[in-house]
């Protein structure tokens, strides 16, 4: 992987990630007359729930469903349409979001463009390009771990207008949160309780072993990764992807795990696109990496409530969660009263049936 950092006209950082075989010289200059970025992000705590809400009113003016010829994530080709990427082509690129939800003392938000092809999707990438995206995510996780305001790094992709995507170009984001997210905090408390109850057992290892042993919800089992529909899936079609050797974050994956991941993940995405038949179009989804937050040993130990060994960062298990809000070819899963009001999900598709369907669509 070749990494070339540069700056955009308003001072934001942009990084080109190229395949080693690429000999492109990334010296194009951003010629747009941009004013310095001014954001108003703040994080407020909810006194009842104890969680955090990012207030970011400046995002009201962000780019919204532009025509394809005005896409800001395309490469800059010619002088008529200057974009966020100054070069005329790219492999993978990461840059600071122009309309960040989190910035400065409240964290950092970045955009990841998977390919310069506006009409492609992650599922269209070959294994070499998908591996390059994984390497870019890993590099940014490592870099953001040293950011003074960042406590947790979340690389994710939203795909499809049904999800709320406002730019059609294939891309994802990386959020560097200034706190441990509520979902991760729940996982840490569960992991601590399991460790205490089992005399040192690991919850993530237990979940993976149980799913592999039962097999009925396993979708793909490789040499180093297993993809399965969880026993208590929240969403109609939801798959979790675990490495067999537990690691805390992307930086700890070994070469064997990195080499197999694109094979398994691309297979999963292509199965998602075949779930509802050839005329249903691409399946909308959310996909994200759940990584251990960057906390002190004392902060990890604070999640422990019972006797025995305290929780440590190494007890967290990196995994990817992929799900769609589509439950049938013409119906979406909306978060209504129970889900939105009380955080109690009601799933219309039994996880075993979802896994069976995902196995059925293994081939076109």
Topology, please?
Elements: E1 2-7, E2 13-18, E3 42-45, E4 52-55, E5 92-96, E6 108-113, H1 127-144, E7 152-159, E8 171-177, H2 182-197, H3 203-214, E9 218-221, E10 225-228, E11 237-243, H4 255-274, E12 285-290, H5 297-301, E13 319-324, E14 326-328, E15 331-332, H6 337-342, H7 351-360
Antiparallel strand pairs: 1-2, 2-5, 3-4, 5-6, 6-8, 7-8, 7-12, 9-10, 10-11, 11-13, 12-13, 14-15
Helix pairs in contact: 1-4
- Strand proportion, as a percent range, falls in 15-25%
Shape: globular
Low-confidence stretches: none
* Number of separate strands: 15
* Tally of contiguous helical segments: 7
Main structural class: alpha+beta
Overall radius of gyration: 21 Å
Q: What strand order characterises the main sheet?
A: 1-2-5-6-8-7-12-13-11-10-9
Helix/strand order, N-terminal first: EEEEEEHEEHHEEEHEHEEEHH
The biggest sheet amounts to: 11 strands, antiparallel
Compute the average pLDDT.
94
Question: Kindly, what is the distance between the CA atoms of the first and last residues, rounded to a whole number of angstroms?
Answer: 32 Å
Percent of residues in helical segments? 10-25%
Q: Could you describe the 3D structure shown?
A:
The chain has 364 residues and is of the alpha+beta class. The chain is built from 7 helices and 15 strands. Strands 1-2-5-6-8-7-12-13-11-10-9 form an 11-stranded antiparallel sheet, with helices on both faces. The chain starts with a strand and ends with a helix. The model has no long low-confidence stretch (mean pLDDT 94).
